Amino acid sequence: QPDFDLQALRAQFPILQRQVNGKPLVYLDNAATCQKPLAVIEAMDQYYRQTNANIHRGLHTLSQEATDAHEEARGKLQKFINAASHKEIIFTRGATEAINLVAQSWGRANLKAGDQVLVSMMEHHANIVPWQQLRDQLGIELKVIPILENGSLDLQAFEELMTEKVKLLAITQVSNALGTVNPITQLVRQAHDKGALVLVDGAQAVPHQAVDVQALDADFYVFSGHKMYGPTGIGVLYGKEKLLEAMPPWQGGGDMIDIVTFEKTTYAGLPHKFEAGTPAIAEAIGLGVAADWMLDLELGKLAAWEHALLDYATEQMQTELPGLRILGEAPGKAAVISFVLEGAHAQDLGLLTDQLGIAIRTGHHCAMPVLHHLGVDATARASFAAYNTLEEVDVFVAGLKRVREMLV
Ligand code: PMP
After folding, report:
1. Model's pTM, two decimal places?
2. Which of 32, 285, 360, 384 is a Cys-bridge partner for 335, taking CB atoms 3.0 to 4.6 Å apart?
């Protein structure tokens, strides 16, 4: 049993009360996006009911209140990852946009033909494609750290690849497809020893553990709001102030300028230099509330419960479903189970479990290279959040058994 009041936690998530196809919802697609607590829903609702206005520059009361709320949210995110300054928190649409920003701004300004960017085999497409685009634009090389059979990073290969030619290590902290947790502090240190900068994709890490960017010493750290109990359409690029200061703006438009004439434009300071156009104001406010909401939780207890769910589900699946193959069994992995069931196509599994009210993800999980490497092109994936229960695991495993009887 969990070391916190699980029913009280569940009660904060209205969606968990609903039925799907006449059955109580069993939501096991948390790595794709997790559900939102009332605190977040109500903060956004309240913003639109009471405050809505465009921010910055407006002198009227609503505009000032909206500006204050938006900037307060930035402060909450600064606290959430323990950044040294609010200037280091750039709001983006999510992890994807944050990585593209670094590739196109820092990358174009600092890389030249022959330089290397090092990624890992287990990256999400969001941390592969922007570097490929940059490779095609600049003639840089993209190198890939392989993984071991169990889904862990091949640390020996990493040491061999981590040469002085590498200017940036861009790597995920936690894999969305396999659940692997990388030894990120050690990787950052080793990359720095070789003179490279490090971008950490924290999209799957922030929902489960406290992150301290100063202790980690990452140069860039990116994540999405919707995976940490916040809204969609908002995320964060953290960058060390000195680096961000030296980087050119990426997108141009309103809000990111100082003075504009047709001859020349000067830019606003950090963080606004990187936030062109009207931002996602309600979403930033919602994300700020989500960050505070998480800081108030005892994250260690929630993480322990997620691991208990993972262990129980893994054991039940292995005993009840012979022929099931789990992909990714790295020690200490996150609460994600990617699997294939002999004779049952992942897509059929997804459709039929949905009939039972169970939400799991099926497909390539935006990580085609790693699935290909493991010899499959699709898996089914159950991913847990702290509001899941052992009873839900039982419903899930019984559902898989039923579906398999229908398919095989
Ligand atoms: N990186 C990882 C590890 C992810 O799991 C995801 C989302 N699945 C992303 C990046 C991209 O996040 P978003 O689509 O919210 O930009």
Report:
1. 0.98
2. 384
